[in-house]
Amino acid sequence: SGTISTVGYFYDRWMLNSGSVVTNAAYLTLGAGTEIEQRIEGTLLAGETVTVSAMAGGTVFIGTGTMPISGTASVTLAGWGTATLGYATGYMYVRLAPTAASNVVRVKLEFGTVSTLAYDPPMDYAVELLKCQRFMRMASGPVWNAGLIDNSLAIEFEIPYPDGMRITPTLILSSNLTDAILLPGTSWHTPTLLGQNYDATHNVFYITFSLPEAVAGRFFAFMSHTKCYFTSDL
């Protein structure tokens, strides 16, 4: 458990837009004035009648509306709060805002005017994880790699992701790359990041860097405690 108060993505691709969220073992506590958002890839929902459901405690609160073809539309979940349905370039979204602090167990957006949330089985973690990983992945240190320096003196290592990502991801480093060694040798150096490339055919992310005193034909070893975030998010 813990409190999330920084605006941006958190668990299961939910975004915090305002307020704070407290994570618990089986629910989220949304504070009064909190707004969270889920983005939906594509705009195929535009113009469709949908039902938004939120289970707080053992009660399911329901509201029905139409996904907009532009802008936003508001849906009241009587006794709980408001859902905002929105249209944006390349995606649609649902924003949830309780009128008072609320312990939210589950939420659902579905076609039609009937809520089926109460009858849903628990989500399959393995299936949901793969869905999330299309949008965001993290490689946390220590990361080890080794190889041979070519004539360009650029050093490249790869991070494979067999099941791929939604679009070509952007690399975000938590800090500078650290610690590489030219072999044979014992002196560690700080590499300089040169670039990055994503091979969508083979689902491999390449990171290229340079090293002081690099010589073509020499081997290198690389170790970093830097967290590498790969984002293909909306």
Estimate the mean pLDDT confidence: 83
Strand content: over 45%
- Strand elements, count: 22
- What is the multimeric organization of the chains shown? single chain
Looking across the biggest beta sheet, what order are the strands in?
A: 1-4-5-12-7-8
Distance from N terminus to C terminus (CA atoms, Å) equals 27 Å
From the spread of the alpha carbons, the general shape counts as elongated
Cα-atom radius of gyration: 23 Å
Low-confidence stretches: none
Q: Helicity, in percent?
A: under 10%
Using brief descriptors, characterize the structure shown.
234 residues, mainly beta, six-stranded antiparallel β-sheet, 4% helix, 52% strand
Task: Give a concise summary.
This protein is mostly beta strands and 234 residues long. The chain has one helix spanning 125-133; strands at residues 2-4, 8-9, 14-18, 21-23, 28-30, 35-41, 49-56, 59-66, 72-77, 81-88, 91-98, 102-111, 136-139, 143-148, 155-160, 170-173, 180-183, 188-189, 192-199, 204-210, 219-224, 228-231.
